[in-house]
UniProtKB/TrEMBL annotation:
UniProt entry keywords in alphabetical sequence: Metal-binding, Zinc, Zinc-finger
Biased composition (Polar residues): 31-45, 77-86
Gene3D superfamilies documented for this protein: Zinc finger, CCHC-type (4.10.60.10)
Biased composition (Low complexity): 62-71
GO function term, MF aspect, one: zinc ion binding
Record domain CCHC-type: where: 263-277
Designated name of the protein: CCHC-type domain-containing protein
Alphabetized SUPFAM superfamilies for the sequence: Retrovirus zinc finger-like domains
Residue span of region Disordered: 1-89
Biased composition (Pro residues): 9-25
UniProt superkingdom: Eukaryota
Length: 300
């Protein structure tokens, strides 16, 4: 028996010049596509990419709409002065209260600007809201707060303009005002306060003298025999119609009335004795009776 020795060829080491071995007819056909430099996206990847793109677009739209909706700063926001002006308060529907006003008697020789400058020197001009002359020859100023009014009146009860002292007081005072009549000028206020303390009444204001009201040049300073004071509303029932005091060995009867006009004839409020309707009616009645008597005498 003879053996034939076949020489095995060397294995192909992937030489670029080496020819590829022919494929066997029984070998399966390869379906692998040649690879390219760009990756072809799969269906799942395309859906995720579209969803991410849509989400980013929605976020950009929401962000831009929020930026448009943000309020723009007003010109007052750039104001270096943080204090709220009266014009801004009016724009917000805020109006001052009557407790924010002070009032004092107006002097003919004093101009309005002098009042304003004097108060502005004390409270600063920015705290003054409005000013005006009002009835009964008074001057009114509205300030920025009630606390400022209270502090002003406590620390500065008077202001001096052209060597004249002018009293400052509230425009609105919740306390009740009373007039003390028939008070001789030699009677000190301490004696009156002692008599009021006997009735358990403590005034909320100092006792001040009232002028006689003489409208002649050089005579306006003359005082009357009347004084005024304020008491709390709860002390009204305690206030007597008069008090009897003894000073310097003499008894004095002081009459107390409120600030309403009271007739001394009929004791009614709202008119004075010279215009009392009861006196007028009685005078008319007497005139008619006199006419009738005269006519009867003529016929006789």
């Amino acid at each position: 028996m003879s053996y034939t020795h076949h020489r095995t060829p060397p294995p192909n080491r992937g030489s670029p010049t080496s020819p590829k071995p022919p494929s066997s007819p029984n070998s399966p056909i390869s379906t692998k596509q040649p690879s390219t430099s760009s990756k072809i996206p799969q269906p799942n990847e395309n859906a995720a990419h579209k969803s991410k793109t849509s989400t980013n677009a929605m976020n950009n739209i929401t962000s831009s709409s929020q930026q448009k909706q943000q309020p723009q700063p007003t010109p007052s926001a750039f104001n270096n002065n943080p204090t709220t002006t009266f014009a801004e308060k009016l724009g917000n529907g805020l109006f001052p209260k009557k407790e924010q006003a002070i009032v004092f008697d107006a002097v003919d020789e004093v101009s309005q600007i002098e009042y304003i400058k004097k108060i502005g020197d004390i409270v600063k001009p920015i705290n003054i809201i409005s000013v005006s002359k009002i009835s009964k020859k008074r001057f009114c100023i509205f300030l920025n707060s009630k606390e400022l009014v209270t502090e002003l009146i406590l620390k500065h009860k008077t202001i001096e303009i052209q060597n004249k002292l002018i009293n400052i007081r509230h425009l609105y005072n919740p306390d009740k005002r009373f007039i003390l009549a028939n008070v001789y000028n030699n009677i000190p206020n301490s004696t009156i306060l002692e008599a009021l303390r006997y009735h358990d009444i403590i005034p909320t204001s100092p006792i001040t003298c009232l002028r006689a009201g003489i409208q002649l040049e050089g005579y306006s300073h003359i005082l009357s025999f009347r004084r005024q004071l304020f008491i709390k509303a709860e002390d009204l029932p305690k206030m007597p119609s008069s008090i009897l005091i003894n000073y310097d060995g003499t008894n004095h009867r002081i009459f107390i009335t409120d600030d309403q006009v009271t007739c001394f004839n009929c004791k009614m409020t709202g008119h004075v004795a010279s215009k009392c309707p009861h006196i007028i009616e009685s005078q008319n009645y007497n005139i008619e009776n006199n006419i009738e008597d005269i006519s009867e005498q003529c016929w006789e």
